[in-house]
Records
---
Amino acid sequence: MTTRSVEAIIRPGAPHYVGDGFRVHNFIPGNQGANMQRMNPFIMLDYNSKYHFTGTEKPRGVGVHPHRGFETVTIAYQGKVAHHDSGGGGGVIAQGDVQWMTAASGVLHKEYHEEAWAREGGIFQMVQLWVNLPAKDKMSPPKYQAIKNETIPQVDLDTAGSTVKVIAGNYQGTQGAASTFTPVHLFNARLKSGARADFSFPAAYHTALLVIEGAITVNGKHEAPTDHFVLMGNDGEAFSIEASEDALVLVMSGEPIHEPIAAHGPFVMNTRQELIEAFDDFNQGKFGYLED
Ligand code: MN
């Protein structure tokens, strides 16, 4: 097994708002190399780093909008998001929970801070990751997996409380909670200061880390502080992370989907023609109905 190198350590850029409830740093596609094909099947990553929202009677968020051609994965670290979709689905994504929504052929949904949480306000911290679907699955029926924190399988690394929670894929023989269309590994690694975790994925898999809490050293020499994104190379399989202070790291690795990408706003398809069809279908109400 050869070592996978660190290709780039990317600092968070200036944040922007998605609606009025998500103050995010965009890392994928970003403008620092982690573009859609470079990270495919991970085609978008918005990170709301810790931010204090004041209490309000009118929850902040983003109103009704469509998606087609991929999956949205929402990972809550602090705060609560309420979700409703045109398929009648809905729920609350609270601290430690993950919502894995397969938009596929198309859904309308809205994402807001949960009402009671919004009233109090507080520190909000969240990731939204978009996972691409292969052409053959882009028009499959929508669905979603509401994955509660306590149902995410956990691998204990030591007796001090260092753990790897397996959201999807497989870590050291422990199978993740989410089902995926293509091979995707997604973990939350919580390491006590000084603890080390080793990972190995096929060299071709696009792989990255996001430091949610604390600071880490990758492969014994590359330091990555809080809120930084580590783009790993494709020159080897294995790498290690070591916590220089108590740390929480989102680890992602996925088999590339070798297909063209045509993306515009909330639609990610293979061809421009399919994008036009998506807009037509949306305008004709074929994504269903959801009240604002
Ligand atoms: Mn959305």
Note: The first helix runs from residue 36 to 39.
---
Amino acid sequence: MIIVLLASACKPKHTESCTLEPALYQVADFPIGCAVDLNQLEFNPNYAQLLGQQFNQLSPENLMKAEHIHPQVNTYNWSEADRLVNYCQQESKSLHGHTLIWHQQLPTWMEHFSGTKSEWEAMFKDHIQSMCRHFKGKVRAWDVVNEAFNEDGTLRNSIWKQHLGAGYIEKAFRYAHEADPDALLFYNDFNLVLSPKKREAVLGLLKSLKQRGVPVNGIGLQMHISIAFPENRAMESAFQDFSEAGFLVHISELDISVNPYGGALNNDSNLWERQAQKLAVVLSLYKQIDHSRQYGITFWGLSDADSWIPSAFNREDYPLLFDVNYQAKAAYCKMKESL
Ligand code: G3I
């Protein structure tokens, strides 16, 4: 009991409040997105109310990943994603498809697929094109390839690279475009602001694809960032570099950790103001890029109760716009002022 009381006494509190109307997307002149957990949307009225009210673009956090949607070689499990499609259509929200080709969250059969190079290629193409055909006209865009690079700018040795060679990225974009020529196609990755070598490699690849007529429209800068990093100059140059090279820029998975190094948090360190301030900087730099390149900003989760960070890193953290009780934090109020 004493431990519980002490823990709650030390827990950082926030007292910020501002009006929830107009909604974020109503004050922005680009889409404001959120990663969505369908289970929460269907069974948690607080979650559903806030999500529906504030955002006009959704990315499925997990349910379009191969592990969930393609559990067996000849079985696609469309039902959950279709419910999300219906929700988006009924509520006039756009849907950002996440993600076609990744090295994580693969079904066992795919991870251990055994076949010749041409059988691998057929499997790869079938996955991409079945997804794109099924959701044709229903998704605005796809994260076609996710996280293909290492921090040093070399290509990750994923199953796709091992079995199809480095050209798999180009093929993925071509196959996706063939199946749904109207969808915008993105390459999505993390640390493109923090790791200059990775950014250079990704930008180099995207430019070369574009020059050769490969249908790639944009970059997803995930931006799992924190109150301590990255530096403003690095964010500015990342946004500008991709925009000036002619790519749509999606801040695709934004969250701002208040506890990036782990450890105990307390009330003394202005965490909420620092988080709000960091968000204001992100917004002001994003607004400096050409408006035609502003695809949108997507938060990776609705409230601090929904964030992937505490369980993934086994630490206390509060990286999103709303607290665990779905109340607006300083970052939300600052965002309204800054949009
Ligand atoms: O599906 C199983 C379920 O069957 C099981 O009962 C449950 C028990 O723990 O686990 C479920 O899997 C979890 C899955 O999310 C779906 O909820 C995994 O344990 C969990 O590790 C997984 O985490 C997701 C993570 O991607 C996987 O790498 C996070 O929710 C999701 O936010 C995160 O998102 C990624 C982006 O897609 C790409 N960029 C990085 C970002 C953060 O890692």
Note: The first helix runs from residue 2 to 10.
